[in-house]
Amino acid sequence: MTRPDQLRLLAVHAHPDDESSKGAATMAKYVAEGVRVMVATCTGGERGSVLNPAMDRPEVWERLPQIRAEEMAKARDILGVEQEFLGFVDSGLPEGDPLPPLPEGCFALVPVEEAAAPLVALIRRFRPHVLTTYDERGGYPHPDHIKTHEVSMHAFDAAGDPDRYPELGEPWQPSKLYYHMSFTLPRTKALHEAILATGAESPYTEWLANWDPARDISHRVTTRVPCGEYFAVRDAALIAHATQIDPLGRWFACPIETQQEIWPTEDYELARSLVDTPVPEDDLFAGLRSEVGVR
Ligand SMILES: [Zn+2]
């Protein structure tokens, strides 16, 4: 199933649509270069809401889980990636004060040893050289995103160990693991200023006003992947998630040409590496290409 001379990337995400908002242009670029790219989607997004006013209709709400799977299939085809659901149930984003308890049986409540098993099995089957996932804060404070981080770290360490999960296939150790650093303060500021310069209103004004600089993660970026020519593919994949993405919303406030000019990369933190690779780098496979025998 896997060719020894082919590079492989596995992107672990919490919900359908996360793959299109974090690292999508990077994936499209690597697919175009002949890399095999797999998206692992931990949950079905069953507890997501409908965030696009045009889709907020009873017949959509009635079959939201199926619709989200269909949207995922469209986005997958647009990005040119393979994709698998890991089979967990969306935890929903708890809201209120105090926060309500998480729903029984949801992904965030599954013990990590058990929650990581399907990902360990997928790593052993797909044999990725590189994994991408979220940082320890989930990149966004959703319980499923934090769980996705925990499960990814657990699986990265366990997949190569023959003593762990021995029933799940031949051990395989990925070489690198990255965190998405998609929504940094400098990037958001740059987009905000570019939008204001056109005379339009920026959807980031309130966001930036409430941004605690102590929570900025931009100093952690080690790796900036140039992928501006795939921003249109990223946007098409996002729009395929029609229940989740308002085509008139803030995702699309800054024209693609402007983004290509001011911030033509997607950014990452190299969190684990078993190969020598000096940072900063501009390629998730830096340090691996000669080892695998491809350029
Ligand atoms: Zn999500």
UniProtKB/TrEMBL annotation:
The keyword Zinc applies. Its EC number is 3.5.1.115. Keywords: Hydrolase, Metal-binding, Zinc. It is an enzyme of class 3 (hydrolase). Transmembrane segments: none annotated. GO terms for molecular function: hydrolase activity, acting on carbon-nitrogen (but not peptide) bonds, in linear amides; zinc ion binding. Binds 1 zinc ion per subunit. Zn(2+) binds at H15, D18, H145. Coiled coil: none annotated. Its cofactor is Zn(2+). One of its GO terms (biological process) is mycothiol metabolic process. It catalyses: mycothiol S-conjugate + H2O = an N-acetyl-L-cysteine-S-conjugate + 1D-myo-inositol 2-amino-2-deoxy-alpha-D-glucopyranoside. NCBIfam families: mycothiol_Mca. Monomer. Belongs to the MshB deacetylase family. Mca subfamily. A mycothiol (MSH, N-acetylcysteinyl-glucosaminyl-inositol) S-conjugate amidase, it recycles conjugated MSH to the N-acetyl cysteine conjugate (AcCys S-conjugate, a mercapturic acid) and the MSH precursor. Involved in MSH-dependent detoxification of a number of alkylating agents and antibiotics. This is Mycothiol S-conjugate amidase. It comes from Blastococcus aggregatus.
